[in-house]
Design a protein that fits this description.
Layout (H helix, E strand, L loop, with lengths): L13 E2 L2 E2 L4 H11 L5 E10 L2 E12 L2 E11 L3 E8 L2 E5 L1 H7 L3 E3 L7 H15 L11 H6 E12 L2 E10 L11 H6 L5 E8 L4 E10 L2 E10 L15 E3 L2
Parallel strand pairs: 8-14
Antiparallel strand pairs: 1-2, 3-4, 3-13, 4-5, 5-6, 6-7, 7-8, 9-10, 10-11, 11-12, 12-13
Length: 247
Amino acid sequence: MSLLLTACGSTVAGVGNNLHNLTGTSLTAMLTRGTEGISSAHVTFAVTVGRTTLSGSGDERISDNKLQSMDVVEQLPGMGTIDVLVDGGAVYVRNTQLAETVGKPWIAVPANSSNPQLHQMMTQLRSLLGSGMGGGAPSSYDALGTAATSLRKVGTQTVGGSTTTEYSVTVDPSRPPSSIPFSREAKRAGVSDVPVDIWVDSSGRPVRVTMNFTAEQQPVSVISTVSEYNAPVHIVAPPASEIFNGG
């Protein structure tokens, strides 16, 4: 996953990223304004469920405030290094073990993949990044306006060399829309409160987001960082001759 949120450097219900009226709605407005015009970003993430961790990093391309494509390199227990390329609605993976099995370097992965490890990886990745909250895309920030049950400013902290403001948000996963990462999983597990911490730089851009909760007696931890906004990125789908359709 794509992690996550922001406040804007211009004045929206306050000055800079210091809100006078701190509510889910006002934070949503800041997040949306703060990420307008972003074309790309570099993301890192780590999703831990119980003792299993999916981690990775890579670049994303954004257009019309929505994630258009992404190329990330991940580490998945049992499979090693996996290159995941998302282009529009298509998902491709490249892995040495899989390539030896199918005879081609890339595999087009369907949503209902029969490979249990790929299925788990794609479920977690879609929950994190498909929501738009794994990086710089602001497409899911409206969810905070209705899903946030509490919100407070924690203070300032230096993150990645930038001075940031930290906000602590409590999210109710049962409230629509369900685009908060892992909200569906949390709701099914009967989790009523999901704490989300957001670090925002002086330009109103997210630099770090964390989530921690327990579902079905397993601890769930999500950490996402975002950097290198608007840097040039080149992401293209692999050639058809190198793709195995299945997975």
